[in-house]
Specification:
Elements (H helix, E strand, L loop, with lengths): L3 E6 L3 H12 L4 E7 L3 H11 L11 H4 L2 E4 L6 H10 L3 E4 L2 H4 L3 H10 L2 E3 L8 H8 L3 E10 L8 H6 L10 E7 H7 L5 H9 L6 E7 L6 E9 L3 E8 L9 H15 L7
Parallel strand pairs: 1-2, 1-3, 3-4, 4-5, 6-8
Antiparallel strand pairs: 6-9, 7-8, 9-10
Helix pairs in contact: 1-11, 4-6, 9-10
Length: 268
């Protein structure tokens, strides 16, 4: 089995989980390098974990790795992905919302023989949505409920003057399309962008976001109506140390990596 060398962009909540697992050993996979903003902090963490991992610039990923994982702030999305795609390599992206306004990266992947992989992340049921999309999907609606602290500081809330401090009842803070939601909440609803890419696109996928002090988990409900099926999916994700991110997100990336080399692949 050929070994796939993996580069990680960002050693935050998600990147650290991936680095530990890869360093511990995953069949057919090897931790090749990482890119970070704070080099001293990253080196101290790697030393403490006894993980050998060169720190390089994102543009140097192609020289070290066969596949890159983007788990960094959305502002660095293109800087991370473009070099790998230009080299005809693969990238796993978690900032799916940052992909929506950059269709040229999909064209670049097509032209150079690369691939952009969007994992299920904190969502579920993307297999069902992609299957339904082979027929005709009439509508897709997603409702997200998060603890207020998980939404605080989102660009849309700041620009709209919406406060989620001191709430004692649920408050709907956004209603619109997945494209609008991904732009206004770049750290919160990448799941909506992934859903839209799996189904009928970001302009037809509808999204509501609620700040709800009664919930302790990040809750997503999806309603899909198509010519092949009608289904509703709900998931409650335990937040990680970063309240904007569910613990299952990092595990979803690990599942994608395992599928790359797995002799048995389950699911679309």
């Amino acid at each position: 089995m050929a070994t796939t060398r993996v580069a990680i962009a960002g050693l935050g909540t998600i990147g650290r989980v991936l680095a530990r697992k890869l360093a511990d050993g995953m069949p057919g996979l090897a931790l090749a390098c990482a890119a970070v903003r704070d080099r001293a902090k990253a080196e101290a963490w790697l030393d403490g974990e006894r993980i050998a991992c060169p720190l390089v610039a994102p543009e140097d990923f192609p020289a070290h790795a066969d596949l890159g994982v983007e788990c960094a702030p959305a502002s660095a999305f293109e800087q991370i992905c473009r070099p790998m795609l230009e080299a005809g390599k693969r990238v796993v992206v978690l900032s799916a919302g940052a992909l929506l306004p950059r269709p040229e990266l999909v064209e670049l992947a097509k032209a150079r023989g690369g691939q952009i992989i969007v994992p299920t992340g904190a969502l579920l049921g993307l297999d069902a949505v992609t299957a339904a999309a082979e027929g005709r999907i009439h509508s897709v609606r997603m409702i997200t409920r998060k603890p207020p602290r998980g939404l605080a500081g989102a660009p849309y809330l700041v620009a709209s003057g919406i406060s989620v401090d001191g709430l004692n009842t649920a408050k709907r803070v956004f209603a619109g399309t997945a494209r609008e939601g991904a732009a206004g909440f770049p750290e919160n609803v990448n799941v909506a962008a992934a859903l839209s890419l799996a189904g009928i696109g970001p302009d037809r996928t509808l999204l509501e976001i609620w700040a709800d002090p009664a919930v302790e988990r990040n809750c997503h409900t999806i309603e899909v109506d198509s010519d092949s099926s009608r289904f509703t999916l709900s998931i409650e994700n335990v937040p990680s140390e970063n309240p904007r991110t569910g613990r299952i997100t990092a595990l979803s990336v690990l599942a994608v990596l395992r599928k790359i080399q797995a002799p048995l692949r389950v699911g679309t």
